[in-house]
Design brief:
Layout (H helix, E strand, L loop, with lengths): L3 E4 L3 H13 L3 E7 L13 E6 L10 H11 L3 E3 L9 H9 L3 E2 L4 H8 L1 H10 L7 E2 L6 H11 L3 E5 L9 E3 L5 H16 L4 E5 L5 E9 L5 E8 L3 E2 L2 E2 L1 E4 L6 H16 L5 E9 L5 E7 L6 H8 L3 H9 L16 E8 L1 E2 L5 E2 L2 E2 L2 E3 L6 E5 L6 E2 L6 E9 L2 H13 L2 E3 L5 H9 L1 H4 L7 H4 L1 H25 L11 E7 L2 E9 L3 E6 L3 E4 L11 E3 L18 E3 L4 E6 L6 E2 L4 E7 L2 E6 L4 E6 L6 E2 L4 E6 L2
Parallel strand pairs: 1-2, 1-4, 2-3, 4-5
Antiparallel strand pairs: 6-9, 7-8, 7-9, 10-11, 10-15, 12-13, 14-17, 15-16, 17-24, 18-19, 20-23, 21-25, 22-24, 26-27, 26-30, 27-28, 28-29, 31-38, 32-34, 32-37, 33-36, 34-35, 36-38
Amino acid sequence: MIRRLLIANRGEIAIRIARGAREMGISPVGVYSDADVNAAFREALDETVRIGPGPAAESYLDGAAIIAAARKLGADAVHPGYGFLSERAAFAQAVIDAGLIFVGPSPAAIAAMGSKSEAKQRVRAAGVPVVAGYDGADQDDAVLRREAAALGTPLVIKAAAGGGGRGMRVVDDLATFDAALVSARRESRAAFGDDAVLLERYLHRPRHIEFQILGDAYGSIVHLGERDCSIQRRHQKVVEEAPSLALDPELRARMGEAAVSAARSVGYTNAGTVEFLLAADRTFAFLEMNARLQVEHAVTELVYGVDLVHEQLRIANGEPLRFTQADLRPRGWAIEVRLNAEDPAHDYAPQAGTVAAFDVPRAPGVRLDSGVCAGSDVPVFYDSLLAKIIVWDDDRDGAIARLRATLAQTRVAGLATNLSLLRAIAADAAFAAGETTTSFLDERGPALAAYTGQQSAQALRASIAALLRSGYAWRPGGIGIPLALEQDGKRVNVSADRTAHGWRVSGDVVAEVPFDAPAPLADSSIVPAPPPSATAQRSGTVHGSGDVTAPMPGKIVSVAVQAGSRVALHDVLVVLEAMKMEHRIEAPVAGTVSALHVATGDVVAAGAALVTIGAA
């Protein structure tokens, strides 16, 4: 029996697993990197051990260090959470070889499903439909180029060894295939330690539907219904809900049976997720299987009344499933949104920094899974996820209403987040109608941006009013009071002049503010701005010196120019890896590279000079 569980992960998932373990009388312990010395998740654990520096490759991906920590802490089992080592068959085997229980599938099942190529071959043999493409073992560039030409565009290059959007590139023109292949391989190697890829036909406007499965060591496998995860950015999920409006009982039964067949094809045990793409004509195809607990598992828990972490631990203890497929019936509707430290206005660029304020209102039907609080640092080394906000109600309309109310009162400050985008999605008419596909954000972009702009302007005006009411004296002689605020990482400068009826505000915001203006909106992510000298440069732009700067802290993974190179507008200069994503730093002007300040492998701070461009 598991008595002391080491959680080989961090953030909100470490807290979530620790809570589930403690409820079962199991002591949760864990590990942390130098970047997480003050992280909130450490307080949720009975004991923790340092395993290395901030970069994941030197800490959370160091399997030997984690097993050594488990021994030191007296753990008898290891839970990998999701991400990091959760789908590494070699790590699962090493845990077992160390005499510990691995809370997850067998190493053989992880290896089979962890390789997207082998997974497709296995489920195809089991009669499950798959997306057309190439999943062969020959990874020669010429072979992949030939297969891509035969498949045609649009196509997608995918990392064979992982998921979560890492190592994935969409190719619309075969002329860009080689560059996309190099980038996909590099990102896959950094994230999963393996640069093998597969090719698939890129489907237009499908829904992304996944089924939660559980299997015990005695051959019983069940599914716990579907989740609709179609709203995505960078091929990563933003909104998830259960059940899906697109499925009726007959289609749900067919897809659920296919999910169970996929799991049976590898003798699957413990928790996992089978993902499908669903076309408008109700045909579906296997996409991949994630051999682990999913980020979005909470919506399934709320709808089916099953604690998936508890079930994972029971199965790992050797217990049989406590229910059959007929026992599992959905109740109500759940929606989850991912609150990320990222800037949707700048291609969802991830953000690092300190969370100045963090408040999500709690109420019946609202669940918060979070790894941060006010004062938490968001490191550059890991995923940008701050929290998952999950709501439940008797039906979808009720769940959407609860989501809107919760997001309206949520407050995050100190760094840019996607909170405004989440509010816009929750308020969107197409979302309310259930018209969600993987193209949702691209197609609804203008409507979402308009809503976000309206909310941002309202929040700014209310915050300015609050500052003016907080004790500022008016200044004589027509000299306005200068105010500076920061909203989602962007500086806002205004001047306020006292009039007979209130304040006239001019500058980046123009408004008339009465003396009795309301207090700032509770959902505002606005804070007084720091002095300009302390404000980090957040975009790669040419400044007075001609320097192109880093938009965020990160690691240089590729340099495309050298001193003397002539560059055109939008030519790639360097590729920066930050928060598990690659970012192309392009030339903002045409000219000649007069100086190169970085090399591959360098770690740079936000605002650091990367390249100096002189006149053309």
